[in-house]
Amino acid sequence: KTHTVTLIPGDGIGPEVTDAVIRILDATGVKFQWERFIAGAEAFEKYQEYIPKELYASIERNRVALKGPVTTPVGGGFASINVTLRKKFELFANFRPIKNLPGLKTHWPGVDLIIVRENTEGEYVGLEHEVVPGVVESLKVITRKGSTRIAKFAFEYARKHGRRKIHAIHKANIMKMSDGLFLKCSREISADYPEITYGEHIIDNTCMQLVMNPYQYDTLLLENLYGDIVSDLCAGLVGGLGLVPGANLGTEAAIFEAVHGSAPDIAGKDIANPTALLQSAILMLRHIDESSAADKVEGALERVYAEKQSLTRDVGGSAGTKAFADAVVKAVETA
Ligand code: NAI
Ligand code: MG
User: Fold this and answer.
1) Which of 184, 189, 201, 284 is 20 to 30 Å from 313 at the Cα level?
2) How far apart are CA 188 and CA 175, in angstroms?
């Protein structure tokens, strides 16, 4: 069987880490047909469209995409391609497993956290305007529908995968109505899952708790903005943004991408770590029912980390992106 998958290499380190991942996926023997598209500033130059119509159509058809990071201008410019795609396809759940890789020395060995981030609303609805010069309003939208479906997603995942605890993370002491509604919906859903312990923690305290003792958490359920921020914090617990994968999931499509951005500070230098996108690709392999290939890549990746040779600079090695990918390809081929 050939899997047709939409591929958005992205910009910055995107094309480098994508090339590495494609090579590793090809080594598994699973047959892919990649429909490759550019997006963002690059696409605008070429087509006067930030997201080409053909890209939308491709995702609609294939219902699965692998995506590298796309740069979003700060302040003005165009709306985030990432946020736009998540909203367009109603990819309401951003699923981000945070786990240590073998052999990597970090402050906290054996971290095993699941981040479930609401992916379509909150502060990221993009409703901002200037009321009068010097005063800007930015709307945060929280709905019962959005909050309930993300809570259900988290609890269903926990039930299916034997997770024991879910904490809803909030600031309902200040944002009494919006975060209050998010909490209320989470609490209601939690009642249907008596086997899973449910707790509520305030976001600022949660950041401190995570850094002091990440083991106290299991699954974190967060609104869009909090989930964005806490994901990077948690990436730091296990060795950095070069490692942590993500999946944007909805009922009609799924887009797999790393937590990190386009990392312009290291782009084009063959030093980026493709592990985060590779682990996203492993999630994708499971999603398309290629779990034995997923196991194979996972095993190969773990072996390369355990052997500590061929690691990239961000995790204490000295290998380049390509050399690291070569090592994983070899480990896949000899699996
Ligand atoms: P970033 O996540 O790109 O980088 C933060 C730091 O982590 C940098 O020092 C970078 O070198 C390092 N890093 C990130 N990925 C790495 C990897 N694979 N290997 C080794 N080191 C890595 O965040 P930054 O620099 O704030 O954002 C850059 C651009 O990316 C912005 O335009 C932002 O909007 C965009 N972005 C896009 C995302 C997406 O496409 N989903 C997600 C996050 C940011
Ligand atoms: Mg982010």
Assistant:
1) 284
2) 19
State the distance from the centre of ligand 1 to the C-alpha of 92, rounded, in angstroms: 22
Q: Among all chains, which residue has been given the structure tokens 């990221």? A: 124
- Residue type present at position 225: L
Neighbours of 287 (CB within 10 A): 16
Q: Which residues contact 158 (CB under 8 A, 6 or more apart)?
A: 114, 164, 166, 193, 196, 218, 219
Query: Quick one: pLDDT at residue 335?
Result: 82
Q: How far, in whole angstroms, is CA 311 from its chain's centroid?
A: 22
- The domain segmentation of the chain, as residue ranges, is 1-91+243-335, 107-238
Could you report the predicted ipTM of this complex, rounded to two decimals? 0.99
> How far does residue 257's CA lie from ligand 2's centre (Å)?
11
Answer whether residue 223 shows pLDDT above 90. Answer: yes
Is 239 touching ligand 1 by the criterion CB < 6 Å? no
Q: How far is the CA of 173 from the centre of ligand 1 (A)?
A: 32
91, 90, 93, 86: which is closest to 219 by C-alpha?
A: 93
Q: What is the pLDDT of residues 274-315, one digit of tens each?
A: 999 999 999 999 999 999 999 999 999 999 999 999 999 999
Ligand 1 closest atom vs CA 263: 3
Please tell me the distance from the alpha carbon of residue 32 to that of residue 30, in angstroms, as a whole number: 6
Domain 107-238 coded CATH 3.40.718.10: yes
69 ligand 1 Cβ < 6 A: yes
Does the beta carbon of 276 sit less than 6 angstroms from any atom of ligand 1?
yes
Q: Is the CB of 242 under 6 A from ligand 1?
A: yes
Q: Tell whether domain 1-91+243-335 is in CATH 2.60.120.200.
A: no
1-91+243-335 matches 107-238 in fold? yes
Which atom number of ligand 1 is nearest to the Cα of residue 275? 18
Q: How many whole angstroms from 73 Cα to the centroid of ligand 1?
A: 13
Q: Is 248 in the pocket of ligand 1 (CB under 6 A)?
A: no
Residues 225, 46: Cα–Cα separation, whole Å:
32
Q: What rounded mean pLDDT belongs to the chain?
A: 97
